Structures are given as structure tokens and as C-alpha cells.
């Protein structure tokens, strides 16, 4: 078969054209990786506070439904191989401990890169662990409410706070300029490190 145009090769891309396209693609990927990592960390943190919020709502609803206590507690990390665990359970005998006859409502492990910081206020754990949120049979939270705080290695700190004891309103706040604020406070969205 003859070439339709003498002196011209078959159609296709040359090696140089392919290398230029590959270099452009690698440059775009390299520029996008930091944004992707930031988005992944944000989603981990937001996902964890959403899990804690859901666990608190489950404990509150179960307390109302069963006329007992619902408890949300953090079991801190016992070493590098054992991450912190958040669990919610129905405390049917009102002793503040998870027993054999009590139903676990939610349990989840804090993922890599998310650290348990502290529990502010709430009720004392009879086993000596961090304080825990205790929801009464009327749906209120015991004591003055409180907050569970988590953070990541980049300096982002979030808390899940139960605002008022009577209503047990649950709110998610982020540490911004030394104070925990809701997203969109005074028209400002949270900034992430």
C-alpha cells in the first residue's frame, strides 16, 4: 500500500508530544495533592464530630424510650496499637457502667490522624475514665452539659457540645482565634489549617 502523502509518516503522536502531555498532567496532579489532603483531613474531622453527634442523639432517644439513662463516653487510647473509642450505651441499671444486660447503641474508633483531646464538664465516670455525657429519662443531660473535643495533627480542634441541660441541644464548634465558634459565626466560615 502506498502512503497517501509521500514523505509523511503514519498518523499518531510523537514521543515528544506524549512526554509534554505527561509532564503537564504530573504538574497538575502535584499542584492538586495538597488540596486533596486538606479535604481528606477536613472530611475525617467532620465525619468524627458527626459520629459523636449521632451517638449522643441515639443515647438521648434511648434514654427517653426506655426510661433509663443513655451514656456517651470516650475510652482513651491505651497505647499506639489501641486508638481511642467513643461508645454510646443504654445504662438500664443507672450505675454508669456498661454491663452485660445493657445495650450498646454505637461504638466507633477514632481514625488515624484524629486525636481525642478532652472531655469538658459532663458527669464523672465511676470507673475513673474521662467524664461522660449522661442523658436522663426525660431527655435532659445530667449536670451542666459539656463537650467532647478532638483534634488533628494540623492544629484543627473541634468539639461536640451539649449546650443546655434541659434541652440537651447538641452543637458542633471549632477553635478559631482562641474561642470555640459555630461554622458561619458572624458570617465567617471556619478556616482549616
Q: Give the overall shape.
A: elongated
Q: Work out the count of structural domains.
A: 1
Task: Report the strand count.
Answer: 9
Terminus-to-terminus distance = 64 Å
The total of helices stands at: 1
Q: Which fold name is given in CATH as the topology?
A: minor pseudopilin epsh fold
**Low-confidence segments, ≥5 residues, pLDDT <50?**
none
Which key features would you list for this structure?
1 helix, 9 strands, 4-stranded antiparallel beta sheet, minor pseudopilin epsh fold, 5-stranded antiparallel beta sheet, elongated
What does this structure look like?
This protein is α+β, with helices and mostly antiparallel strands and 193 residues long. The protein has a single domain, classed as minor pseudopilin epsh domain (minor pseudopilin epsh fold). Helix content is 27%, strand content 27%. It is built from 1 helix and 9 strands. The strands form 2 sheets. The protein has a 5-stranded antiparallel β-sheet with strand order 4-6-7-8-9, covered by helices on one side. A hairpin with a 7-residue loop joins strand 7 (157-162) and strand 8 (170-176). The termini are far apart. The mean pLDDT is 88.
